[in-house]
Design a protein that fits this description.
Layout (H helix, E strand, L loop, with lengths): L5 H14 L21 H9 L10 H9 L8 H14 L4 E5 L20 H6 L9 E5 L3 E3 L15 E3 L5
Antiparallel strand pairs: 1-2, 3-4
């Protein structure tokens, strides 16, 4: 972020212009400049941002540099899930699924008759930015982002990007 190129400056200027309404139609829709458009949907977007993702080396330093220079941002969680699933499918390694804890812990002294118990299926269907997914699918070599301050002294905190090298 500290090295600013002419391309970065132009991109930043275009983002400001979008924010100032330069590309906004009377109906409120925004037509992005041609340089910001990716025609062909999510698969084309992924291929343009992550070229050759299905044939990447398993050298962790190379993978780290590859993913450090690339990212796809989405405004909505449902889009994040769709992009993640599409990218994950391109990795050749074995897929593992990890499930969240889905049991109700009764508070000591709570009046059970006034407690609303929601079905597990309903709780697992909730997708909220403050909650982890009910089922997390990963593969060896995929980029991950830490969403909690787990060990700040060692750099494992919210926003840290990493690569999965093993799963158990």
């Amino acid at each position: 972020r500290l090295q600013v190129s002419t391309e970065d400056m132009m991109f930043g200027q275009q983002l400001q212009e979008i924010g100032n309404g330069l590309y906004t139609s009377p109906d409120g829709s925004i037509t992005l400049p041609a340089s910001m458009q990716c025609i062909g949907g999510v698969p084309k977007l992924i291929e343009s941002i992550y070229p050759g993702i299905g044939t990447l080396s398993q050298d962790w330093h190379e993978l780290g540099n590859y993913f450090l220079q690339r990212t796809i941002l989405c405004a909505r969680n449902d889009r994040v899930g769709m992009v993640n699933e599409t990218v994950l499918a391109k990795f050749q390694s074995e897929e593992r699924t990890y499930f969240s804890v889905d049991k109700v812990v009764e508070e000591v002294g709570a009046d059970i008759s006034t407690t609303t118990v929601y079905p597990t299926e309903f709780l697992n269907s909730i997708s909220h930015s403050g909650l982890p997914p009910a089922a997390l699918k990963v593969k060896r070599g995929v980029p991950l982002m830490i969403l909690r301050n787990l060990d700040p002294q060692n750099g494992i905190c919210n926003g840290t990007r990493c690569i999965l090298i093993a799963s158990t």
